[in-house]
Each structure stands twice: as structure tokens, then as C-alpha cells.
């Protein structure tokens, strides 16, 4: 196994930067740079091959089996300039047996050494990408091993069900065979229900990770683009007194009360003979229709045109500063903005509450495969004791599908995909 090193903190000017070395030669590399290593942590002067001082560093030492990767690890916390980190990385590269780590390689080693399961690795990737509070909390839940715990519970129930069935196979010749089917069915149903909940939460978990879409729609000139700009805090969209200003869909990503949201500004909806405006309106309807939520911004008294508000959609009057009836906002003065944001937040966080511990399409597919096998198992169980063997086989196939969630089986083919998006030094 190679010993690898990388800058673990972000590149560029910073108070402190962290460089990590992991692998069998980590401690030797540490000694080469520091002269002597501290027991667990200590301040050391790092020198290059000719004894020239590189920097004063806080050095952390982790023995094999007691580090993030599970390998021997030495970390150097140095002054965070590019010159210092470059010099240190150059020096480490000179040491025989050491090479620069690939993106995600530390985490890959943590996985190989059983420090993390596959779902935790995905949680860690999400945690590093997290920009909002909801993303952080979701990633943390997965990183803590919540999906692995669920998978263990499902596995335990299914293995117990399979064992009950197998016991009847062995005793099939007995005079009065015990009917295990009620207990087996109950175990299968319990797992099925839990799987269904997790499966249904994946879509929302993906929204939390990738962002919700909220579209602003309404008639031309209602103040949609001005509202977008007010929410974004910058002039993202062109505004003008001309009806029909916005043509393309303008997207701005923002943090709305901890939720990642992409707000879409769209072309004003109306009947038009203008070809380009017509294309814009078609796009507006398509994108707004596919969005998670729509804010209908209306001109005074007008009814929505071209699209109907759904039950969760928000209907609000624009240009509140001109005196409007009911709930109104003004992108120009900021009136009503807090109320609008809190209404959006309320709708989306009610949905976000349905996210579970399965958070990716990969998880959803494994759950569906398991669920299908359980469906088959149930049919076999109801076919009587003669079908016990087949039922047990379906249960084992469900267990295999669930094992793939945490990487107990079928790992290799998905690892490259998962690690492809990791940053260097993680
Ligand atoms: N400096 C530093 N900070 C870091 C990390 C790291 O690798 N280095 N982490 C990496 O992503 C995260 C923390 N995760 C970690 C997980 C396990 C161990 C570890 O060495 N565990 C030992 C006990 C070490 C001790 O108690 O001193 C063990 O489990 O035996 C370290 C960090 C966030 N902060
Ligand atoms: N008084 C007042 N004027 C506003 C407000 N918001 C926008 N306006 C003005 O109304 C006009 C239209 O604003 P836009 O934001 O471009 O309207 P829009 O809904 O994006 O229009 P289209 O892109 O054509 O569909 C501009 O002259 C804005 O300055 C507001 O809250 N109060
Ligand atoms: Mg506009």
C-alpha cells in the first residue's frame, strides 16, 4: 500500500492549512520532516532535505487503526500560505514511497479499512458539499451511519424470517408442522413498510441536496424580476417598465431559511403574437410547472392567466407599495418579503420533513429491488410449506439488495462513480 499525502484544507491564503500523510510510511515521513515525532500532538519545526526550515507546525500523529483512514497518519498544521503548503508538498513528494493522494483517496482507504460504510462515504461527500443548514443536517445523519443502522435492522428481521422458513424445511416430515407463516409475514410486512417510507423520502432528500425550485410566475410587468432581484440581493434579472421584458428563465440559487432554493424568474404570461415572447412563455410554463413550488405574483386584482395555482402554491399581489388588497409584496420597497420567504420556507420544510436516511437514487433502486424480492417472498409464503425454500431464497435476495446500500456487496462498480466527485485531500 502506497503512502499518500495531500493538502486537506482548501488551497489559498488561510490562517492555518492542514496537510495529511496516510499509509505505512507516514510516521517515517513525519520523522524525516520533524526530526522526532510527538506522541500524539506537538509543535515541531519542519525542515527540508538540506535542513532548511520550512515552517513551524502543529503535528498530529495517529497510530494505525486510530485515524480517519485507519492507517498510520501524520498531519501537519502549518501557516496557511500557498508558498508554505507548496514547499511542504514538494518536500513530501521527494520522499521515496510517498505520492500525492488522488481525490477521495483518504476516504476510500477509510472505507476499505471499515472505518466508514458506503452510505457514510456518500454522507461525507454531501457534508463537504453542504451549503445550507438543511443540507448539513441531512449529510450529518447519513455520515453518522443512520442508513447502515436501518439496513442492519431490516437484515436482522429478514434473516430471522429466513431462519424460520428454513427450520420448517428441515422438519417438513414431522406429523404436525408448526405454521411459521404468520410470523414470517409479519416480519416481511414490517420491513416492507419501513422500506416504503425510506423509498418515498428519497425524492425530498435529493431536493435538500440539490436544491428546491421555486418559480415566480404571473402576468407581464407584475414585478417578478424586481422581486427576484430583491430576494437575491443583486441585479440578476433585467427589469423595465416594458411588459414582456423577461424571455429566458433566470435562475438564482439562494439559502432560504436553511433550505437550498433555486428561484426562477420567468416570462410574464399573456397571449402574444410575438414569436420570441411566445417561446419565452412556453418555457416559463414548462419550468414553472416542473418546479417544486410556484409563487403567483399578480397585478392588482387580476386572476392568474395561463397556469392554475396548485394547493401549496403561493398567490400574492405585486407592487405592495401602490396599495393592494390582501397579501402583497414589493420588490421595490421590500414590503412583504419576509412574509413571502417564510411562507415558501413553511411549505418546503413541511416537505423536507419527509426525508429519511436513504438520500440517493442508488439507495432508492436498492430499496426497490429489496422490496420486489419481499413481494415475491410473501407470495411464496402464502403458497404453503412446500414453497418455504423459494420464499427463503427471495428473502436472501432482498438481504443482498439491502447489503449493497452500505457496500457489503457489489461495491467495486460504484466506487469510482462515488469518488469521482470527491475533492483532493478528502
Ligand atoms: N485534523 C483533522 N480534523 C478532522 C479530520 C481529520 O482527519 N483531521 N476529520 C476527517 O475527516 C474529521 C473528523 N473525523 C475523524 C475521525 C476519526 C479520527 C480518528 O483518528 N479517530 C481515532 C481516535 C483519535 C483520537 O481520539 O485522538 C480512532 O477512532 O481510533 C479522526 C478524525 C473532521 N476533522
Ligand atoms: N411601484 C412599484 N413598481 C415596481 C415594483 N416592482 C417592479 N416595479 C416596476 O414595474 C415594472 C416591471 O417590473 P419587472 O420586475 O420588470 O416586471 P416583470 O414582472 O418581471 O415583467 P416581465 O418580465 O415583463 O414579465 C418596472 O418598471 C419596475 O420598476 C414594486 O414593488 N413597486
Ligand atoms: Mg421580468
TrEMBL record:
<feature type="binding site">
    <location>
        <position position="246"/>
    </location>
    <ligand>
        <name>Mg(2+)</name>
    </ligand>
</feature>
<dbReference type="InterPro" id="IPR025867">
    <property type="entry name" value="MnmE_helical"/>
</dbReference>
<dbReference type="Pfam" id="PF12631">
    <property type="entry name" value="MnmE_helical"/>
</dbReference>
<feature type="domain" description="TrmE-type G">
    <location>
        <begin position="211"/>
        <end position="349"/>
    </location>
</feature>
<feature type="binding site">
    <location>
        <position position="115"/>
    </location>
    <ligand>
        <name>(6S)-5-formyl-5,6,7,8-tetrahydrofolate</name>
    </ligand>
</feature>
<dbReference type="InterPro" id="IPR031168">
    <property type="entry name" value="G_TrmE"/>
</dbReference>
<feature type="binding site">
    <location>
        <position position="225"/>
    </location>
    <ligand>
        <name>Mg(2+)</name>
    </ligand>
</feature>
<keyword id="KW-0819">tRNA processing</keyword>
<feature type="binding site">
    <location>
        <begin position="240"/>
        <end position="246"/>
    </location>
    <ligand>
        <name>GTP</name>
    </ligand>
</feature>
<keyword id="KW-0630">Potassium</keyword>
<dbReference type="InterPro" id="IPR005225">
    <property type="entry name" value="Small_GTP-bd"/>
</dbReference>
<dbReference type="InterPro" id="IPR027266">
    <property type="entry name" value="TrmE/GcvT-like"/>
</dbReference>
<dbReference type="InterPro" id="IPR018948">
    <property type="entry name" value="GTP-bd_TrmE_N"/>
</dbReference>
<keyword id="KW-0342">GTP-binding</keyword>
<dbReference type="InterPro" id="IPR006073">
    <property type="entry name" value="GTP-bd"/>
</dbReference>
<keyword id="KW-0460">Magnesium</keyword>
<keyword id="KW-0378">Hydrolase</keyword>
<dbReference type="Pfam" id="PF10396">
    <property type="entry name" value="TrmE_N"/>
</dbReference>
<feature type="binding site">
    <location>
        <begin position="265"/>
        <end position="268"/>
    </location>
    <ligand>
        <name>GTP</name>
    </ligand>
</feature>
<comment type="function">
    <text>Exhibits a very high intrinsic GTPase hydrolysis rate. Involved in the addition of a carboxymethylaminomethyl (cmnm) group at the wobble position (U34) of certain tRNAs, forming tRNA-cmnm(5)s(2)U34.</text>
</comment>
<dbReference type="InterPro" id="IPR027417">
    <property type="entry name" value="P-loop_NTPase"/>
</dbReference>
<dbReference type="Pfam" id="PF01926">
    <property type="entry name" value="MMR_HSR1"/>
</dbReference>
<comment type="similarity">
    <text>Belongs to the TRAFAC class TrmE-Era-EngA-EngB-Septin-like GTPase superfamily. TrmE GTPase family.</text>
</comment>
<feature type="binding site">
    <location>
        <position position="426"/>
    </location>
    <ligand>
        <name>(6S)-5-formyl-5,6,7,8-tetrahydrofolate</name>
    </ligand>
</feature>
<dbReference type="InterPro" id="IPR027368">
    <property type="entry name" value="MnmE_dom2"/>
</dbReference>
<keyword id="KW-0479">Metal-binding</keyword>
<keyword id="KW-0547">Nucleotide-binding</keyword>
<protein>
    <recommendedName>
        <fullName>tRNA modification GTPase MnmE</fullName>
        <ecNumber>3.6.-.-</ecNumber>
    </recommendedName>
</protein>
<keyword id="KW-0963">Cytoplasm</keyword>
<comment type="subunit">
    <text>Homodimer. Heterotetramer of two MnmE and two MnmG subunits.</text>
</comment>
<feature type="binding site">
    <location>
        <position position="20"/>
    </location>
    <ligand>
        <name>(6S)-5-formyl-5,6,7,8-tetrahydrofolate</name>
    </ligand>
</feature>
<dbReference type="InterPro" id="IPR004520">
    <property type="entry name" value="GTPase_MnmE"/>
</dbReference>
<feature type="binding site">
    <location>
        <begin position="221"/>
        <end position="226"/>
    </location>
    <ligand>
        <name>GTP</name>
    </ligand>
</feature>
<feature type="binding site">
    <location>
        <position position="75"/>
    </location>
    <ligand>
        <name>(6S)-5-formyl-5,6,7,8-tetrahydrofolate</name>
    </ligand>
</feature>
